[in-house]
């Protein structure tokens, strides 16, 4: 039930083009159509595929990983799981190559293919001899294909350096063949951690683009070139060619890097890359987001954001032949009337539907499962990315919990160790309470609670910057009936505080804290509404 947006072509590119946790963007073009993928870690469905005609407006068309047969994320901790993916198109076939990191199941680098980027995508073909992370594919115009990636120079030694490796890729067998070539040792600029390598051929030369400096504040984009795909590569003396690390921690966009280039049908070059927008101090709660900047070639090197030097631009939008799709709506209301929930919902570690849309037609029914958000398990949590600093998120919740351990409501999730819950719970005396619980650094705190009469209740998380107001009101009551139970400083939900690589997800959550329970919670509707600036 996605409302379709329409819009006029904007005068300048509005960055980020994909707000909220959309890191490690990779893009490819097929005729007038662009497809883009981002990393999804422990969330299912994994690796959203976005489509655009103008590189600015992106519409989700499907997911690369949408069934349990493809990957097992069941033992993957937060910020592990599906790392940076690369999407490429060659002779009618789409390829995505990525790495499953962590967990005790099948892991490592794998490739999947599809003829339609909306899916279905194939089951993985594991590239067991591909070391490290951040794999990428390159289809040369001489008919040969190559796979590159990043690995630690000293296995297990993250404080050390990375190597960028290359092997030939057999597109029929989907295997690596031939010898390994070391394209780069260390970072292309003398910093640390060359990551996210991608290869391109421009005017007969091979270009190796890589992130470096780590995916946080010192992130940067560097480039090297060679006459042969196997090297030797020479770094651009002007490296890093794009970074915000010299602009300070109060610059509106920080940590830019991990770029992928695309040439438009009109012959322009653009880069998608990640960056984050901290607020309330240095709290990028929205995670690493996808930005778009123009690229121009000067002296046979790519120049990022020419004339501007930062993602702030302003940039004239790409020249496109096809009409733009218009903005994708930010506000989302899901009335749970359709056969499936809005495609932007995600679950943690499992592709199985633990919810039902048919048990009570028009509502999302959640069981109060045993798992909590605190474990590396499969909690009954359906979340969507927080994409705006200031946003009101509400749901109409109908639940009659029987014990103090039975909770159902809304959660804001960063990780197992760091999340925030606003829930209806039993009070131990046959009645109900509404409670606010914070788990930070792995320790749970009951922050506030209040008696709650029975009946459906609207729960609302009113986020304004770091302040997450936790509110409730009887269903159908006017705005004056709303009570703010408490407000929580959400700074602990940002990755600089919590660790890891992610932004936050929010949505309905139900648990019985390990106890067996027959109680269910019905969510009549969910509403995500950015607050007017
Ligand atoms: C990504 C890698 C990185 O694969 O973060 O720190 C990983 N570097 O480039 C997850 O986004």
Automatic annotation (TrEMBL):
Keywords: Glycosidase, Hydrolase
GO biological process, one term: carbohydrate metabolic process
SUPFAM superfamilies the UniProt entry points to: Arabinanase/levansucrase/invertase, Concanavalin A-like lectins/glucanases
Name the UniProt record assigns to this protein: Alpha-N-arabinofuranosidase
InterPro entries membership: ConA-like_dom_sf, GH43_C2, Glyco_hydro_43, Glyco_hydro_beta-prop_sf, Glycosyl_Hydrlase_43
Source organism of this protein record: Actinacidiphila glaucinigra
Hydrolase listed as a keyword: yes
Residues annotated as the enzyme's active site: 24 (proton acceptor), 195 (proton donor)
Pfam family, one: GH43_C2
Family designation: Belongs to the glycosyl hydrolase 43 family.
Gene3D superfamilies assigned to the protein according to its UniProt record, in alphabetical order: 2.60.120.200, Glycosyl hydrolase domain, family 43
Domain of life: Bacteria
Entry keyword annotation includes Methyltransferase: no
Molecular function via GO: hydrolase activity, hydrolyzing O-glycosyl compounds
Residues marked Important for catalytic activity, responsible for pKa modulation of the active site Glu and correct orientation of both the proton donor and substrate (site): 134
Organism ancestry: Bacteria, Bacillati, Actinomycetota, Actinomycetes, Kitasatosporales
Domain Beta-xylosidase C-terminal Concanavalin A-like: 333-529
């Amino acid at each position: 039930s996605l409302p379709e947006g329409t819009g006029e072509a904007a005068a300048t590119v509005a960055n980020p083009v994909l707000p909220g946790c959309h890191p490690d963007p990779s893009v490819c073009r097929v005729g007038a159509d662009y497809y883009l993928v981002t990393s999804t870690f422990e969330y299912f469905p994994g690796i959203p595929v976005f489509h655009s005609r103008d590189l600015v407006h992106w519409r989700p068309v499907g997911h690369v990983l949408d069934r349990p047969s493809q990957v097992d994320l069941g033992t993957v901790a937060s910020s592990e799981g599906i790392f940076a993916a690369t999407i490429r198109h060659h002779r009618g076939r789409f390829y995505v190559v990525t790495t499953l990191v962590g967990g005790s199941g099948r892991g490592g680098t794998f490739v999947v293919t599809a003829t339609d980027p909306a899916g279905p995508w194939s089951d993985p073909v594991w590239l067991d001899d591909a070391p490290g992370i951040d794999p990428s594919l390159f289809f040369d115009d001489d008919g040969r294909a190559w796979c590159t990636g990043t690995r630690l120079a000293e296995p297990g030694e993250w404080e050390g350096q990375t190597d960028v490796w290359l092997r030939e890729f057999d597109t029929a067998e989907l295997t690596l063949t031939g010898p390994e070539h070391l394209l780069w040792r260390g970072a292309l600029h003398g910093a640390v951690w060359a990551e996210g390598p991608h290869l391109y051929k421009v005017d007969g030369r091979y270009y190796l683009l890589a992130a470096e400096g780590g995916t946080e504040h010192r992130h940067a984009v560097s480039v090297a070139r060679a006459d042969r795909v196997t090297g030797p590569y020479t770094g651009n003396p002007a490296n890093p060619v794009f970074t915000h690390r010299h602009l300070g921690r109060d610059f509106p966009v920080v940590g830019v890097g991990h770029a992928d280039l695309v040439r438009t049908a009109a012959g322009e070059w653009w880069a998608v890359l990640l960056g984050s927008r901290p607020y309330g101090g240095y709290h990028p709660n929205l995670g690493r987001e996808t930005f778009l900047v123009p690229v121009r070639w000067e002296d046979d090197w790519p120049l990022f954001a020419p004339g501007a030097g930062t993602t702030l631009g302003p940039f004239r939008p790409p020249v496109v032949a096809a009409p733009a799709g218009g903005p994708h709506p930010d506000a989302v209301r899901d009335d749970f009337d359709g056969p499936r929930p809005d495609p932007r919902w995600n679950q943690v570690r499992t592709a199985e539907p633990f919810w039902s849309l048919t048990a009570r037609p028009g509502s999302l029914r959640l069981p109060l499962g045993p798992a909590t958000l605190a474990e590396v398990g499969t909690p009954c949590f359906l979340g969507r990315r927080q994409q705006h600093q200031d946003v009101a998120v509400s749901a109409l919740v109908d639940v009659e919990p029987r014990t103090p351990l039975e909770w159902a409501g809304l959660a804001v999730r960063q990780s197992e160790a760091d999340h925030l819950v606003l829930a209806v719970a039993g009070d131990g005396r046959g009645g109900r309470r509404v409670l606010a619980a914070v788990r930070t650094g792995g320790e749970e705190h009951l922050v506030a609670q209040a008696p709650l009469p029975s009946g459906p209740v609207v729960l609302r998380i009113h986020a304004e910057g770091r302040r997450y107001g936790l509110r409730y009101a009887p269903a159908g009551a006017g705005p004056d009936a709303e009570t703010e139970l408490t407000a929580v400083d959400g700074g602990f939900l940002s990755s600089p505080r919590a660790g890891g690589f992610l932004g936050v997800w929010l949505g309905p959550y139900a648990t019985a804290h390990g106890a067996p329970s027959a109680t269910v919670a019905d969510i009549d509707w969910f509403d995500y509404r950015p607050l007017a600036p």
